């Protein structure tokens, strides 16, 4: 799988409806329980992800699809998740 | 004879566990009552095909055996046999959502590793198929090494097969966990990858179809349309509580009034008649009248929860809640608290962050619970003229709305202050699975409503009846001596024990405009808030035995004895009023000690006193 680091963006800035693959998660930026819950909800390198909704303009949470699940998380957490947009879906 | 084998239903949140539990046990279930119970337990009975009865317990949903909320701790402790008051289950039914295998199988793998007999219910297979997912249960059985039964709990499909599989694994004999300490230390990432492999292997085919959930979310989570929809739903909910319930309330009220009239006519004047008519019927009747409103409120909350919308509401509210240091998760318990603070406080168990949860518990009583409705309705009806302020907007409704808003504003201010002082800490996160939308199952909603109604009626029959009778006794004795004709009549209430106590405390409340009757009502209102209405009813029934005791006479009495500033101060008192005893008890239980309930009572009492005082002084200054 092609995952050049220069192509990765954070989940926070990933455009809506753009399919992507989780490239890296900066666990150190997350509080302990937060990191564990993130893992429990299925966040892991190599899993496909997509931003579905962003809450009310400003700093509201985002809703994303991870695997077959929809998960809501805050932007600060999304910022710690690096993703590689999938070229196929971008075209 | 040995007790029936215990089978625990366990699985991820949103796997359809409760629906399966309801389908398996029907109405034969018991929900642990609030006060005095340490664990909320949902148990039901189930007959296996071979005639053996089995006790089925529904455990709170969890993501893993490493708990991050009190709810998940109960689940871990039960399946590892370390929960007080629960024996180690003889078997587990692991419920998984067929459409979400890669996630749910991870917890399943952890549970299987415990070593208890397991059968997996591959639930909601119909929804998975609708989403274009075809699975092979045989592959799952091979990979997991346990029986896997496809089920559709809400359509009762697969239940017989599930029961047959259970008969096969429930053996009579002591159970033992695989590891003596019961801990499963497997790495989450490894388990997750294994779960994904199994899910991929079991997937026969997968086609993408348009999903209802995504289409609905496009509106429900829309930055502009979403909040408008939420507001509309909230408006509809409160509208329904006040208008739909009215005919039922009138009917119940008419019933109790007729019963009073009947007893008054049939029985000779006696102490027993006074107890029945003035004490029991006046008191309990005044409370049961509110059953329709409470049920409608719970109906909305149950439907919003069952449909999956509640989590969307939490998503939309996260931003607002974050501004006072809470998370969107707190929205759900707070909304439930509009029905009653007790289920609200219990719902905080899903909040992982300890400080976040504590803050939510402390402000939950500020949400105007349905028990305060009787008080608001009575006082507003008696003192606020029903003039039209705007088309379709009456002054009475506006005051009622104002009281609700006052509670919400109070709660937000309290949260802001608490998060900067006693519950200081890093701002908690917000991370939540958003389940698929589902059509609520009326049967499940019905069961939920039925258990709420039972709890409410038990309260009315227990704590409310008892405190009403005690108050009646304290108000009725001793009787004032007969006065010679022409001499001023001695008030029966002032002469009674309760009257003397109230007259003693009254000076404390005199600065904020509270008279003796209010002080009398406040004491039993600690038992349950709606008793305040019953208590005022009883006071006037005893003080003025000749008048009829219908609602009309009570309103006349109030108007004659209370000034408008007093009435307004009384309303404001109840916005902040210290909680009922059940709320204090549930807070003690949920926070493991007396420290926080004591703090809660203290700060709310102070807030109630100050706010009622300000209201009174302003109203007097304004010449009302």
UniProtKB/TrEMBL annotation, chain A:
InterPro entries: Fe-transptr_FeoA-like, FeoA, FeoA_core_dom, Transcriptional_repressor_C. It holds the Pfam family FeoA. It comes from the Bacteria. Residues 9-85 form the Ferrous iron transporter FeoA-like domain. GO terms for molecular function: transition metal ion binding. The keyword Iron applies. Keywords: Iron. This is Ferrous iron transport protein A. It comes from Sphingomonas aurantiaca. The lineage of its organism: Bacteria, Pseudomonadati, Pseudomonadota, Alphaproteobacteria, Sphingomonadales.
TrEMBL record, chain B:
PROSITE patterns: G_FEOB (PS51711). GO terms for cellular component: plasma membrane. The keyword DNA repair does not apply. Pfam families: FeoB_C, FeoB_N, Gate. The chain crosses the membrane at residues 219-242, 248-268, 280-304, 324-346, 358-384, 396-418, 460-477, 497-514, 521-542, 562-586, 598-619. The keyword Transmembrane applies. Residues 4-172 form the FeoB-type G domain. One of its GO terms (molecular function) is GTP binding. This is Ferrous iron transport protein B. The lineage of its organism: Bacteria, Pseudomonadati, Pseudomonadota, Alphaproteobacteria, Sphingomonadales.
């Amino acid at each position: 799988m092609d995952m050049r680091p220069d192509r990765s963006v954070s989940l926070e800035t990933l455009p809506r409806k753009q399919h992507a693959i989780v490239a890296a998660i900066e666990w150190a930026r997350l509080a302990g329980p937060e990191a564990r819950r993130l893992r429990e909800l299925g966040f892991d390198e190599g899993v496909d992800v997509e931003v579905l909704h962003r809450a009310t303009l400003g700093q509201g949470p985002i809703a994303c699809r991870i695997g077959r699940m929809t998960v809501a998380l805050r932007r600060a957490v999304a910022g710690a998740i690096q993703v590689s947009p999938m070229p196929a879906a971008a075209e | 004879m040995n007790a029936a084998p215990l089978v625990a239903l366990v699985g991820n949140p949103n796997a359809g566990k409760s629906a399966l539990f309801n389908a398996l046990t029907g109405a034969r279930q018991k929900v642990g009552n609030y006060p005095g119970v340490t664990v909320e337990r949902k148990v039901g009975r189930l007959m296996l095909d071979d005639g053996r009865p089995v006790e089925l317990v529904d455990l709170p949903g969890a993501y893993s055996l490493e708990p991050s909320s009190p709810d998940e701790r109960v689940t871990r402790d039960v399946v590892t046999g370390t929960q007080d008051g629960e024996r180690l289950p003889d078997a587990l039914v692991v419920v998984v959502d067929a459409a979400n295998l890669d996630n749910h199988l991870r917890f399943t793998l952890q549970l299987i590793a415990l070593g208890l007999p397991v059968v997996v219910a591959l639930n909601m297979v119909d929804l998975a198929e609708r989403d274009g997912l075809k699975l092979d249960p045989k592959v799952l059985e091979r990979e997991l090494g346990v029986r896997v039964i496809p089920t559709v709990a809400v359509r009762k499909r697969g239940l017989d097969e599930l029961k047959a599989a259970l008969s096969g694994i429930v053996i009579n004999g002591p159970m033992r966990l695989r590891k003596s300490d019961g801990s499963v230390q497997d790495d989450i990432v490894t388990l997750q990858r294994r779960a994904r492999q199994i899910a991929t292997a079991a997937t026969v085919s997968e086609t993408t179809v348009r999903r209802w959930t995504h289409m609905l979310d496009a509106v429900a989570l829309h930055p502009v349309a979403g909040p408008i929809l939420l507001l509309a739903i909230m408006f509809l909910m409160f509208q329904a509580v006040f208008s739909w319930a009215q005919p039922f309330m009138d009917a119940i009220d008419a019933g109790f009034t007729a019963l009073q009239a009947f007893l008054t006519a049939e029985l000779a004047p006696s102490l027993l008649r006074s107890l029945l008519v003035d004490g029991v019927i006046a008191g309990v009747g005044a409370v049961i009248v509110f059953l329709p409103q409470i049920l409608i409120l719970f109906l909305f909350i149950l439907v919003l929860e069952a449909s999956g919308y509640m989590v969307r509401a939490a998503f939309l509210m996260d931003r607002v809640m974050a501004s006072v240091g809470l998370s969107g998760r707190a929205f759900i318990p707070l909304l439930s608290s509009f029905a009653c603070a007790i289920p609200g406080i219990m719902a905080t168990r899903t909040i992982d962050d300890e400080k976040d949860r504590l803050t939510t518990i402390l402000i939950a009583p500020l949400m105007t619970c349905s028990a305060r409705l009787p008080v608001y309705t009575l006082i507003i009806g008696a003192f606020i003229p029903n003039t039209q302020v705007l088309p379709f907007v009456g002054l009475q409704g506006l005051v009622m709305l104002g009281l609700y808003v006052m509670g919400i504003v109070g709660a937000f201010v309290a949260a802001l202050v608490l998060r900067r002082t006693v519950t200081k800490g890093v701002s908690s996160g917000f991370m939540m699975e958003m389940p698929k939308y589902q059509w609520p199952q009326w049967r499940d909603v019905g069961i939920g409503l039925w258990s709420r109604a039972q709890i409410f009626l038990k309260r009315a029959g227990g704590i409310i009846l008892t405190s009403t009778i005690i108050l009646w006794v304290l108000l009725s004795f001793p009787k004032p001596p007969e006065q010679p004709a022409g001499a001023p009549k001695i008030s029966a209430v002032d002469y009674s024990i309760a009257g003397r106590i109230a007259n003693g405390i009254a000076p404390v409340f005199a600065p904020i405009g509270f008279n003796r009757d209010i002080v009398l009502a406040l004491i039993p209102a600690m038992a349950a808030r709606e008793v305040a209405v019953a208590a005022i009813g009883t006071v006037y029934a005893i003080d003025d035995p000749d008048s009829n005791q219908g609602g009309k006479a009570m309103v006349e009495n109030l108007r004659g004895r209370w000034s408008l500033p007093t009435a307004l101060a009384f309303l404001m008192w109840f916005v902040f009023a210290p909680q009922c005893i059940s709320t204090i008890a549930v807070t003690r239980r949920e926070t493991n000690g007396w420290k926080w309930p004591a703090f809660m009572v203290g700060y709310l009492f102070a807030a109630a006193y100050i706010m009622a005082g300000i209201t009174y002084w302003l109203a007097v200054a304004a010449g009302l």
